[in-house]
Design a protein that fits this description.
The complex is a heterodimer of chains A (92) and B (200).
Chain A (H helix, E strand, L loop, with lengths): L5 H15 L4 H17 L7 H14 L11 H15 L4
Helix pairs in contact in A: 1-2, 1-4, 2-3, 2-4, 3-4
Chain B lengths: L1 E2 L7 E2 H4 L7 E2 L20 E6 L5 E4 H6 L3 E8 L4 E12 H8 L7 E6 L4 E5 H4 L5 E6 L2 E2 L9 E3 L12 E7 L6 H4 L17
Parallel strand pairs in B: 3-7, 4-13
Antiparallel strand pairs in B: 1-2, 4-5, 6-7, 7-10, 8-9, 8-13, 10-11, 10-12
The chains are: A mainly alpha (92), B alpha+beta (200).
C-alpha cells in the first residue's frame, strides 16, 4: 500500500521539485536522491523492490571516484532514472 | 569522390552507404559512459557464464588469453549519433563461448553483466552472430580503461551501448530482462538501421 498523509505527499512533491529545478541534472539528482533516501529511512515513504533497484542504479550513475570526472552519460542517466523514480513514488 | 554530411570529416559515397540514418561520421572514438571508469586488477579479474546452459563456467584473464583469437573489421554506431567506420577489433568469437557453455533450448536471451552492476540485454539470435566478439584489442592496441579495459563485448549490428564495456559475464535466460539503459527509456532492440534509439 502506498504511504498516505501530509509527510508522504510532501516527500513526493519535494523529490519532483528537486529534479525539475534549474541546474545540472547530476546535482539535482544527488539532492533528490538524498531527500528520497531520508524519506525511506524515516518510513515516510515505503520501500519497494523496484525503488531500491532504481536508487541503486542512480547511485552508480552518480558514482565519482577520486580524481575522475563523471562519465559523459551520467547526466542523461540521472535524468532518465529520476524520471522513473518520480513515477514510482506513487507506489511508495 | 567525396561528399560532406554536414559535420565531421569528409566521407566517400561508399562510406555514406554504411552510415545509418540520423548518424554522422567521425574519425574519433568518443568516450561515453556513466559514473566512473572502473579500476580493474587482472589478478582478480574473472568472467562467468551461467544460466540456461548445460556447462556453466568461468575463466580468469590468463585462460581468456589462451582462447582462439579472431580479428573483426567493422563499423560501430552510437545512439548519441556518431558512427565510426573501419574499426579493427580482436578478441574471442562469441561462438567460442556459446559452444563451451552448451546452451539449453530454453536459453532465448542473454544478460550481459559488466563492472559496477551495468547490464544490457540481447536475444540469442543477435548475440550468436559472426561479427560478435569479446574484444580486448581495438585498432591494434589493448583497450584503454575508458573504452572498456580489459574486455568489452562488440555487437556491431546494434547501437553501441549493447557492446558493454568492462564486461564480466553472460547470463542466459528464458525471458528477456531489460538492461540498464533499456529499463530507463532506450529501445530494447537498438537497431541503428531502423533508428531504434528510444522506447517512446
Amino acid at each position: 500500500m502506498p504511504s498516505t498523509g501530509a509527510r508522504a505527499d510532501e516527500a513526493r512533491a519535494e523529490f519532483r521539485r528537486l529534479i525539475a529545478q534549474p541546474g545540472h541534472a547530476t546535482d539535482n539528482a544527488r539532492m533528490a536522491m538524498e531527500t528520497l533516501e531520508s524519506a525511506l529511512e524515516e518510513a515516510v515513504l515505503e520501500r519497494t523492490p523496484e525503488i531500491d533497484q532504481t536508487l541503486a542504479d542512480l547511485r552508480l550513475a552518480l558514482e565519482q571516484d577520486d580524481g575522475q570526472k563523471l562519465g559523459g552519460k551520467s547526466a542523461e542517466a540521472a535524468r532518465f532514472i529520476t524520471r522513473r523514480l518520480a513515477q514510482l513514488l506513487d507506489e511508495a | 569522390m567525396t561528399s560532406f554530411l554536414g559535420r565531421g570529416p569528409r566521407v566517400s559515397e561508399e562510406q555514406k552507404k554504411r552510415i545509418p540514418p540520423g548518424q554522422y561520421f567521425t574519425e574519433k572514438w568518443p568516450v561515453l559512459h556513466y559514473g566512473s571508469v572502473p579500476r580493474v586488477d587482472l589478478k582478480t579479474w574473472d568472467f562467468k557464464v551461467w544460466g540456461e546452459v548445460d556447462n556453466p563456467f568461468e575463466f580468469d584473464w590468463a585462460e581468456f588469453k589462451q582462447l582462439p583469437r579472431k580479428p573483426l573489421h567493422t563499423d560501430i554506431h552510437c545512439v548519441t549519433r556518431w558512427s565510426r567506420l573501419d574499426m579493427d577489433f580482436e578478441g574471442v568469437a562469441i561462438q567460442t563461448i556459446l559452444e563451451r557453455a552448451r546452451l539449453r533450448p530454453t536459453a532465448r536471451f542473454v544478460v550481459i553483466h559488466a563492472e559496477q552492476g551495468y547490464t544490457t540485454n540481447l536475444p540469442i539470435e543477435v548475440l550468436d552472430d559472426d561479427d560478435v566478439l569479446l574484444a580486448d584489442i581495438a585498432d591494434g592496441a589493448p583497450l584503454t580503461p575508458d573504452h572498456g579495459y580489459p574486455l568489452r563485448l562488440v555487437v556491431p549490428k546494434r547501437y553501441f551501448w549493447k557492446s558493454a564495456k568492462w564486461v564480466r559475464g553472460l547470463e542466459f535466460t528464458q525471458v528477456d530482462k531489460p538492461g540498464f539503459w533499456e529499463r530507463y527509456g532506450y529501445n530494447n532492440n537498438a537497431d541503428p538501421w531502423k533508428e531504434e534509439r528510444f522506447s517512446e
